[in-house]
Design brief:
Immunoglobulin-like; signal; 13 helices; five-stranded mixed beta sheet; TonB-dependent receptor plug domain-containing protein; elongated; single chain
């Protein structure tokens, strides 16, 4: 476990509230550690765009992150991706297999998706154990008939003006910082052209204005028994007035400056009425995140009302730091979020080279990291004029901000691309106006998470044998050529189990009982597989961003003229042929490297034994009256020289006796590879297929086969939709040029990829990436291909 804790001795002071009976500082730390003892996964899913037509695919890439250590969550394998409609009804789900913190997939937009708003949710079973939902939810739209989708906004937009005192409350006769944000019905910020703070006699105390997201702050030295209000004027000249909450007679104000220099400055101020209550009491400033806790002692003195604490950023946690002030009763009384810009996993990336020739362009990206990039990237390529990518989140915002914030982050690309002092100031405004973090202290003290849901790694199979009488040395064999599985398990009390299995959706598995002499017997197996399906819901529908999409393109005519009929409805075509046309169906389900194909049905020697064909193609074959031995002619030091052999995709497990009298006349094809294949012998692979697929029963009838399993969905290879006209206005607004889900750097750390050249000379790259050391990249870059 990584621990980078800071011990600073600083003299400070603070206030009080009623919370929970925590008897000591040690107990507080113990409860805090217990709450974060179970590690949490965070998921970000990168969509290739957010507006789709019927006939297109929703392409996506998911990244899984460990927020505590800021590294990929490599233990996660089972990732659930579901699509819900605007009413929260489940439309479609898939289970994806993740490796090293990455996975990708796709959904076909067919006619069950009527035009409208939808949500794609990415989650795991383990996430259900936590109060804080770290599932990732994004909104997208299916473009269609304007009358079906467009929701007219009222002429009189409603606004929500919120005031958030820094630290949590306003105190009399001290300098208070008050954050504010103004949002509209869609949850987006509204610019305040001018704001004024007024006292109860309409005297102007101070003025302010907001940034482009409707966020800002002002300072108020609140006097006793005085009422205050703010009056704001918007760009459309609409005016809003709101009272400021009354100041408290006792308390401590907390102000933080984290945007300048290498230090975070924390100013605490109290009044003369409060100070006597603070002297001799132990207060602590907690700097914490994800189970990492730094505790700074705070002492108050009789002659001092103002205190300044300086914390070095180099000694704080990377990224978000939650600052919580607790009183002598260990009750949290003030809280503020800051972002440590000196220590973050954020890296920059940019286009270093563009070579356009003919119908394609080759783009080279480089990062500013000094170390070699060892990671994985996804890139969506769209016309620069596109309206089909309404970016609601980025990998940086989801991993470094969203787990700690309660509210919506508008335009997350803004804060972490081309970073400058204004963007850092705006980021601090965002955090100031979030108030307390997403993690409730009431939950931390009273409701630690427990393991009610399993951490899933692949599939778990538990089985039992019917009417089985135990014999020493017997084992159960589980095999699946489609899934590259060949495992054995010990049988105890007629029961057995297999863990961490990879099972692709709609594939089959085989069971066989093997005795101590290696003989296979067909068993009768009863079993359960977990997980056995997808059960997910979506209850937290938010209307905050439901109108982020441009509705100008919701016309039915454009739907059916945009994509050629060749791609509008079709996904894959299943052909049902007569027995004479069987060759394509019978080819191996696993790709074989450097395989030699032999059509045995065209052989002139139909009565030859198949062992003679194997002998002629790089293997030594020996036979006896009742057995067959096959070894590779290649020398493989320290590794087996016995190949993997299949008949109709059923492995023989080194027992080749079934080949002894097998003649070519019973076979249709053979594939012979002397090159190692994934999950198979380093000596090579041989795959034999019988005529009419009868060999699985006539040659090997010693397996119990289970078909059509629930399993991991296999992603398709990306294809570009068959757009009718890539010069059209519709394509330039809503079309997709390319999608690269798994781009890895070359030996020099460069990311190189090729894209097709369409009519758009200017394109947008939407880049998201994560490396194995936890570095994060997120960039939107506009490129001119004509230069």
């Amino acid at each position: 476990m990584k621990k980078s804790f800071l011990l600073l001795l600083v003299v400070l002071n603070l206030s009080f509230t009623v919370f929970s009976q925590i008897k000591s500082s040690k107990e507080l730390v113990k409860k805090y550690n217990a709450y974060f003892e179970l590690e949490r996964e965070t998921i970000y899913t990168h969509l290739n765009k957010t507006s789709y037509f019927i006939g297109e695919e929703i392409w996506f890439k998911s990244y899984i992150y460990n927020g505590r250590y800021q590294t990929p969550y490599v233990s996660s394998t089972n990732i659930y991706v579901s699509i819900f409609n605007e009413s929260g009804n489940l439309m479609e789900s898939k289970l994806l297999y993740a490796t090293m913190g990455f996975t990708h997939g796709n959904f076909l937009v067919d006619h069950k998706f009527t035009p409208g708003i939808y949500y794609i949710k990415t989650t795991t079973n383990w996430m259900k154990n936590f109060t804080e939902d770290l599932s990732h939810v994004q909104m997208f739209e299916i473009v269609g008939n304007e009358q079906e989708v467009t929701k007219k906004l009222s002429d009189e937009n409603k606004y929500d003006l919120q005031l958030l005192p820094e630290g949590g409350h306003i105190v009399e006769n001290v300098s208070n910082t008050i954050g504010f944000k103004l949002i509209n019905e869609q949850g987006n910020g509204v610019i305040i052209k001018k704001g004024t703070v007024l006292d109860e006699k309409e005297n102007e105390i101070t003025t302010f204005k907001s940034n482009q997201f409707g966020l800002g702050r002002f300072t108020l030295h609140a006097k006793k028994d005085t009422k205050y209000s703010i009056h704001v004027v918007l760009a459309n000249e609409k005016q809003i007035t709101k009272p400021i909450e009354p100041a408290k007679g006792k308390g401590i104000s907390l102000k933080v400056n984290a945007t300048n220099g290498d230090n975070v400055l924390i100013a605490l101020e109290t009044n003369s009425l409060t100070l006597p209550d603070l002297i001799g009491k132990q207060y602590d400033l907690l700097i914490h995140r994800d189970g990492q806790l730094i505790k700074v002692k705070v002492d108050f003195t009789a002659d001092k009302l103002k205190y300044l604490i300086s914390l070095k950023k180099s000694e704080l946690l990377s990224g978000i730091n939650i600052l919580t002030l607790v009183n002598e009763n260990n009750e949290p009384i003030a809280e503020r979020l800051v972002f440590n810009t000196l220590k973050t996993p954020i890296k920059e990336i940019e286009a270093a080279k563009i070579v356009s020739k003919g119908d394609s362009s080759v783009i080279t990206l480089k990062s500013n990291t000094t170390s070699e990039i060892k990671g994985n990237f996804s890139i969506s390529v769209l016309p620069a004029s596109n309206e089909a990518y309404q970016y609601q989140s980025t990998i940086i915002a989801i991993f470094l901000l969203a787990p700690y914030l309660k509210g919506h982050i508008e335009n997350p690309y803004y804060y972490f691309s081309d970073i400058n002092s204004k963007k850092l100031y705006d980021l601090d405004l965002l955090l100031l106006n979030q108030g307390w973090s997403k993690y409730s202290w009431d939950n931390i003290f009273n409701d630690p998470p427990s393991v009610n849901y399993k951490f899933e790694t692949g599939f778990q199979l538990n089985g039992s044998l019917n009417s089985y009488k135990h014999k020493a040395g017997n084992t159960i064999i589980l095999s699946s050529s489609e899934n590259q599985i060949h495992e054995s398990a010990i049988i105890k009390n007629s029961a057995f189990s297999f863990d961490n299995l990879f099972l692709a959706d709609s594939t089959s598995i085989n069971f066989s009982l093997k005795n101590k002499n290696g003989k296979l017997i067909k068993p009768v197996v009863y079993f359960n597989i977990y997980p056995n399906g997808i059960k997910d819901d979506f209850q937290n529908l938010s209307s905050n961003t439901k109108n982020i999409f441009n509705n100008d393109h919701h016309t039915e005519e454009k739907v059916y003229s945009f994509i050629s009929s060749g791609r509008t409805l079709l996904d894959t075509v299943e052909l049902k042929a007569s027995p004479k046309i069987k060759e394509a169906r019978k080819k191996p389900l696993i790709t074989m490297y450097s395989a030699k194909y032999i059509d045995l049905m065209k052989s002139d020697f139909q009565q030859r034994h198949i062992t003679s064909v194997i002998r002629e193609n790089g293997f030594d074959v020996a036979t006896s009256a009742d057995n067959v031995w096959i070894i590779s002619k290649r020398n493989i030091p320290g590794r087996t020289n016995i190949p993997t052999i299949f008949i109709d995709n059923i492995p023989l497990y080194g027992n080749f006796k079934q080949l002894l009298n097998l003649k070519i006349s019973a076979l249709s094809d053979i594939y012979i590879s002397r090159t190692p294949n994934p999950g198979e012998s380093p000596a090579g692979s041989i795959k034999i297929f019988t005529r009419n697929d009868q060999g699985i029963f006539s040659v090997i009838n010693k397996y119990q086969t289970i078909d059509n399993l629930f399993g991991f969905s296999m992603p398709k290879k990306y294809y570009t939709p068959n757009y009718r006209n890539t010069n059209s206005e519709e394509f330039l607004k809503l079309g997709a040029i390319h999608w690269i889900p798994n781009l890895t750097p070359n030996e020099t750390g460069e990311l190189i990829f090729k894209i097709p050249n369409y009519s758009s000379e200017t394109i947008n790259l939407y880049i998201e990436g994560m490396s194995y050391d936890g570095s994060l990249w997120s960039k939107r870059e506009t490129i001119n291909l004509a230069k």
